[in-house]
Amino acid sequence: MSPVTQVPAPTNHQDDLGSAGGVRGLLWLTWRQHRWTLIGTLVLAAVLVGWMTYLSMALTDLWHQCHETFCPEHSPQGERLAGSSNLVLTLGALSRLVQYMPLLIGLFIGVPVLTREHEQRTLLLAWSQDFSPQRWLWTKLGILGLFVAAVTAAVAGVSDHLAHLETQVAPVTLFDHVPFLNTAMLPVVISICWFAVGAALGAAIRRTLPAVFAVIAGFIGLTYFVQWHYPTLMKPLSVHLQMDGPDRGPLRDNALVVKGGMIDYGADGPSGAFDATGRQLSGVELQRLCPPDNDSGRMLSCLSNLHLQQHLQYQPGSRIPEFHLIVATGYLGLTAVALAAVWWIVRRTNLSAG
Amino acid sequence: MSEQSIAVEARDLGRRYGTVWAVRECSFQLPANRIIALVGANGAGKSTLMSTIAGTLAVTCGSLLVHGRPVVKGRSTDAGGSAGSRVAILAQDKPLYRDFSVSDMLRFGRSMNRVWDQRRALSWLQRFDIPLDRRCGKLSGGQRAQVALAVALGSRPAVLLLDEPLANLDPVARTEVTGELMAEAADSDMTIMLSTHIIAELSGVGDHLLLLDAGRPVLTGDVEELLDSHVRLTGPRADQPPGPGAIVQAQHTDRQSTFVLRQPAAPVAHAVVAPGWSTQPITLDELILTYLKASSKAHRDLETAA
Fold it and tell me: Could you list the residue ranges that cross the membrane (chain A) (predicted)?
């Protein structure tokens, strides 16, 4: 039997839905149009959350096995945390995935909001109904934005927990670029930002593929810009530390070394070391005191035995929340610009039936 | 016409793309509850005019009223208009969401409109035997047109704008669609404006004509009245016709002259006005072609003079 004949009996002659045709209607339309993307995002987020939760449990176990401190290098636990172990490689891969999640959201959720309508020429259909173009736009962006915020908040929460556990079992700092971006509210803010930027670029370019390339280029460019600039968003602090000393001083709690801390082997020999009085040693003096050889361990112990110091500029770990706020504010500013651009483009878009 | 009986009113309307005017100096009143035939050659400005009436295209100058309410681009009837001024438009390419099923498209219409008549939309689809569970991307061009029409009709607009609605249909479907559209218009308080550049499509469909040429309206009025007020006079060669009326077109051979006249009032019968002259009624096709040729000649004369 043809489905035409299976139509349920119509109810009222005129079905005035009132508010049913409002946000609820657009909620259904948004789901119907983007359901596979939304399901894919949910699956990816669920995998990430599940996997990171599992790794969090593994790291907690290691922490307890290592008596709630760093695991010794040559212990079995230390081996599991060594640079090329499966655990560390998996942690790195998941961190990268969390870092690039905003890009995926921009590409698969942000860009198609308008490019799909332009490419299928359905914008006239959508905008000639009872929803005004602006209301259509903001309701859709609101629904998708809330979805993005909810999903990334779940991922960000687990990612933050995992990153903190990593600092308990291994000498890593939350101020490093990738952990910095993957903790606190930043994954949520950056995801919303790239969702908005994707929608804006889609609105401006009107074609999916070019808009996708534009989002990728923008994401890579901005990520490198942030990586390059964020250590100096506030004036760094300075400190003299004994070389290879047991006490890492202010660098203990998630500090970020901005400058110094390494002996610079320039053209005139090594430099960057200071004696106990704070006088900088020349390269010749340093070579005379600790002749270079192929064993870096011996050289470091030589420098340590002479109580030589290094000069460091650093950002203390206590500043992480402030840095998060500054970076988040920047991304939110970009979000506002992107949303303003979408509003302006939609307002100026003229559609002809021909 | 009273304000209630006017569906669309344009006052010195113009729309320009860059330096090119698509529509200009458009002033007209279109009656409500009628089927209006918007006729013009390709590029005459039909789609542009319809898009401005639908509020999806901004006007460059002038103003538009739909049932007395000004049309503002980008403002839906939901936000600022009443149900009586709701406008639906069906574009030439009959856009649908390709991955939606036909019933999804009906749900789209229900979700996006304050007023939705499911029975009307369904009965339209049933008339043309459109399967509800098939994806729109898998439908034929004619079936897609029927689905798009069902969505447009289901929203129960006061004014329904159909841009080349018969373009994708075979001759049988054309006849059926025009018949059903006329029935829909008769059963409801809906004004239908359909555009075409194929004059033959109009026979027996439109009861009001708006003829566009180069973006300007060159003829508008009730079809019957227009046909009654125009007459073709054929007789021996003469510079002027032997009867009253404005000359729309004059053609001369060595021995014969033919005039198409617009008479001040519709005569009861086309009487022979002078010896050797005969009068003939004019068909809609001939009327439209006559005005289009006359308008084209006027443009050429203007360009030559310039």
Answer: 36-54, 97-115, 136-158, 178-197, 209-230, 323-346
